[in-house]
Amino acid sequence: MTNEQNVVGCDVKSRMKAFIALVMSISNSSMYGAAVPEAVLGEFLGKSPKKLIKRLELEEPKVNAWIDSMRASSPTRVKSTIPASQNPHNYTCWIHHHPSALHVFDQIICKSRGKKIVAFLDYDGTLSPIVSDPEKAFMSKKMRATVKDISRHFPTAIVSGRCIDKVRNFVKLEELYYAGSHGMDIKGPTKTPTSEKAILFQAASQFLPMIDEVYKILVEKTKCVPGAKVENNKFCLSVHFRCVDEKGWSALAEQVKSVVNEYPKLRLSQGRKVLEIRPSIKWDKGKALEFLLESLGYANSNDVFPIYIGDDRTDEDAFKVLRNRGQGIGIVVSTVPKQTEASYTLQDPSEVQQFLRRLVDWKRKTLTTQRNSTKCKPFCTIVDRPRTN
């Protein structure tokens, strides 16, 4: 069966409506003799044809709303690469409220004075570029070196929708905290003197059999949508539609929704060119951020300054936590204006790398100044000591 035939097979709803309407028109047409009684049609179709069409019409706006939402959260590659200068009014207004973290770096540092910085970093679209194949979302050597340096000076966590094993395989740094599956699977550093006390927290262990079951079903269901890819992130599932033609989004959304509807304990949400299936528990990247801060001893501390950098809708939960706490800052990675709880912005992973590098350089300079100041103190004490007669 060809891909085109598969797509046609998936678009059942629109063809069902057309078929029912055709049958009704034929039944009422005099050229075919007496009209077919609706009861007969109902027996043939499974219920009253008028009620069936009405039900389909009621569901259609819901599907359309989903498609509109998918478009809004997943701008096309062409649109996402349009320079901000081509739409100066919207971008200027947005950047006024969400200034570049690079341009106001000194202001950010000023806000963090006297506080302990803790870095939280999303992976895809933040440390690595968004790519067509999620299995090839590699971070650059320069970025890896920068993240390694960041972790030497500040507690650092990678907070990702991917499962821990996958994101750790990409990052390849054992000195970091990792929160995978949108924070439902958390582990501490394994390359530290206290690695035996590494954090281990799994918020949704009881859902693992259900997640595996749904994964297998979705793999089969989505075969009819060319370009769709289902990724098992252990405690959640990701259905990628980055390589799906927009004409196939409706069919894909229907396939995924039809499966998730059979599992009330799971919920469906969206990200950048991805549909996310997660357990219906009150746990997200924001909760993971709070858990890690508490584990680090900063639960009720005013001396901490969390910096969270992310590009996806799922990162908004963490941005909101920081805003509500009145601590630290959220930085959204985006080339286009978007609604966000973040205070600042960076355009792409290259700017993220620049920002993190400046943070490292600032910390090293501060430590050097402190060491030099300490070395001068004994000398200054002798020189400044008043003479006695």
UniProtKB/TrEMBL annotation:
- Pathway given in the UniProt record: Glycan biosynthesis; trehalose biosynthesis
Organism, as annotated? Senna tora
Q: What is this protein called?
A: Trehalose 6-phosphate phosphatase
Gene3D superfamilies linked: HAD superfamily/HAD-like
EC numbers for this chain: 3.1.3.12
Keyword terms: Hydrolase, Stress response
Checking Pfam families in the record gives:
Trehalose_PPase
Required cofactors, per record?
a divalent metal cation
What exactly does this protein do? Removes the phosphate from trehalose 6-phosphate to produce free trehalose. Trehalose accumulation in plant may improve abiotic stress tolerance.
Family assignment?
Answer: Belongs to the trehalose phosphatase family.
List the signal peptide residues. none
Q: Mind listing the GO molecular function terms for this protein? A: trehalose-phosphatase activity
Question: Biological process (GO) annotations?
Answer: trehalose biosynthetic process
InterPro entries per record:
HAD-like_sf (IPR036412), HAD-SF_hydro_IIB (IPR006379), HAD_sf (IPR023214), OTSB-like (IPR044651), Trehalose_PPase (IPR003337)
Q: Which reaction does it catalyse?
A: alpha,alpha-trehalose 6-phosphate + H2O = alpha,alpha-trehalose + phosphate
